[in-house]
Amino acid sequence: MPTVTFPGRPLASYPVLSIFYRLFYSSTIIARLPAWILSYALFRRARPLPTWSFKQSIMLRILTESIFMVSRTQTPTSLSLEPGKDKERWEKLEPFPKDVYRGPLDHASVEPSTMGGKWYPEKPTDASAIGPVLLHIHGGAFVVGTGRANQDGIMADLFIKHGKVGYIFVPQYLCPVPAALQDLVTSYLYFVRTLGIPASNITISGDSAGGNLVIGLLRYLAEYGAELNIPQPKSAVILCPWVAPVKSLWPEFVVTSNPNFRTDYLGAELCRWGAATYIRDAPPEHPYITPLGHPFKTPVPMLVTFGSAEIMVIDGLEWVKEMERVDGNEIEAYIEPDVPHDTLLVGHILGFEESSAGVARKMGKFIRQHA
User: Which residues of this protein are catalytic (predicted)?
Assistant: First the structure.
């Protein structure tokens, strides 16, 4: 097994230097843009995939470079418990009694804390009678993302328009381990205990890093749900999950040698920053951090989706096979051909709107089949 190393803080991440670095790197993107435009316009084979349009190719390149810049400056998304523009759609959640946070969630220095989340399209007036509801865990490599409209509003609209999903709640969780999973348990108990939503009406979903956390929550409910009297959700939709964050702490070539590295916008810098931030001093191979290699039994039917051109699909499908081999598990994999990571999140930016709508439709069909 390769050696796990935690990266030091890049010089570009220090406040004053980060400003200059962003200005400098932005200028290099602008300087290289004409060459990319010319190359992708004239030579289809120069595109990440020959089947991609000019827009898809150029936008993926710009997004990749932008993510690299943000990762070098390590500028996380700031979180706030204030409603702000979300007003009445924002909900503040208090932690439950400490005895519901057991095992890997019982940490000497990381206590469950107050958290927030947003309802889409609006906060229900009687949550116990709203029918099927979605608890969605946002992605962002554990370092960016808030669950608010500026990041997840488009995704929520896709769930509602194409997936025919009713109400959606997106919690804003904290890192590192185990704070994020503590927040997920708080969110799920908010549904079943505070609001009185029947577990048979609840689907848990998550994209990318959020998919990793959904797997962790399913494991926690499988291991501790019965003794804590926490019911299992009806189904789970796991979108492009990050099943092996530990590999991003291995030598960089582990990521750059991935056969889909050129066709995805996720770079080694973002993955390494996110993994190091989330894991910190926890064992990187712990089952709640790295699902790959640690299958478990769950009664919850699962839909797992990937893009065939993303870097996470290889490990992800290996994890699906591991879970399929566990007697009693019900898991279905859906692969979108020739698309990068998490088009539900960025398809409108990259020009993969058809893909994102297709994933949302598949998601909605799966939820209704298990309603």
Answer: 208
Number of domains into which the chain is organized: 1
Q: Is 80 noted as a catalytic residue in this protein?
A: no
Which position among 57, 205, 208, 235 bears the catalytic label?
Answer: 208
Low-confidence ranges of the chain (pLDDT < 70): 1
Structural domain harbouring 240: 84-248+271-369
Would 4 be classed as within a structural domain? no
Q: What is the pLDDT of residues 36-85, one digit of tens each?
A: 999 999 999 999 999 999 999 999 999 999 999 999 999 777 889 999 99
Give me Rg for the CA atoms of the chain. Answer: 20
Q: Does residue 194 fall inside a structural domain? A: yes
**In this predicted structure, what is the pLDDT of residue 306?**
98
Which pLDDT value is given to residue 130? 86
Residues 320 and 331 sit within 8 Å (Cβ to Cβ) = yes
CATH code assigned at 162: 3.40.50.1820
Asked if residue 306 belongs to a domain, the reply is yes
- The answer to whether 269 and 203 have CB atoms below 8 angstroms apart is no
Residue 5 belongs to some domain of the structure? no
**C-beta separation of 249 from 275 below 8 A:** yes
Q: Give a three-class secondary structure readout of 105-140.
A: HCCCCCCCCCEEEEEECCCCCCHHHCCCEEEEECCC
